[in-house]
């Protein structure tokens, strides 16, 4: 949901480098965890990763003409199905593919990856944290989606405010006001994504419950 739709040159080279470096570090940690801790190299993980990457990239390109354009990206669903490590790699790939077709600048990939990894991780841990609560699967997935997208919007705003936008004469308070309006619109669309995610997770539990094993408690 949250995505920095700025072209190259909007951030200074210093901040572009910082966000890229942080994103690469996080992605490398995801790869290390998958290989050496979880040892996730089975076909099921690869199938889920491929499916989520394709679905996220496809829906990412569907623009909703509100406030300059917003969209869904299925990051909470990715987190619920694949977990933070697999999800982190997926959103990194999706951001690269999106930049390749002009959806945001190449310099924004690092920052956007951090935003989306936040959404993936928060949704995953919220979904798991609600397992013991007396909630339906639909409600758990919906709440996890809203939590992930809310934190993603917060991180997006923080990154932009810290980095500053070159060539913009507005004060930081004016920028914050505009970004807050955008986040409000994003959260309106997040409600739709929460309902969609709830239905998808409920359906998957009925037909392929094994796909949700990553989101179940560790035993």
Task: Give a nutshell description of this structure.
This protein is mainly α and 219 residues long.
Number of domains: 1
Q: Number of DSSP helices? A: 6
- List low-pLDDT spans: none
CATH third-level topology: Arp2/3 complex 21 kDa subunit ARPC3
CATH architecture assignment name: Orthogonal Bundle
End-to-end separation in angstroms reads: 32 Å
Class per helix and strand makeup:
mainly alpha
Sheet of most strands: none
Number of separate strands: 0
CA radius of gyration: 17 Å
The helix fraction, in percent, is over 70%
Average predicted local confidence, pLDDT: 86
Order of helices and strands: HHHHHH
Q: What's the CATH class, please?
A: Mainly Alpha
Which band does the percent of strand residues land in? Answer: under 5%
| Shape annotation | globular
3D architecture notes:
Pfam families: CbiM. One of its GO terms (biological process) is transition metal ion transport. It is found in: Cell membrane. One of its GO terms (cellular component) is plasma membrane. The protein is mainly α. It has six helices and no strands. The chain has one domain: Arp2/3 complex 21 kDa subunit ARPC3. 70% of the residues lie in helices and 0% in strands. It is globular and about 55 Å long.
Secondary structure blueprint with pairings:
Blueprint: H1 13-38, H2 43-60, H3 75-100, H4 109-129, H5 137-163, H6 172-207
Helix pairs in contact: 1-3, 1-4, 2-3, 3-4, 3-5, 4-5, 5-6
Transmembrane segments: 12-33, 45-64, 76-98, 137-163, 175-201
Membrane topology: Multi-pass membrane protein
Keywords: Cell membrane, Membrane, Transmembrane, Transmembrane helix, Transport
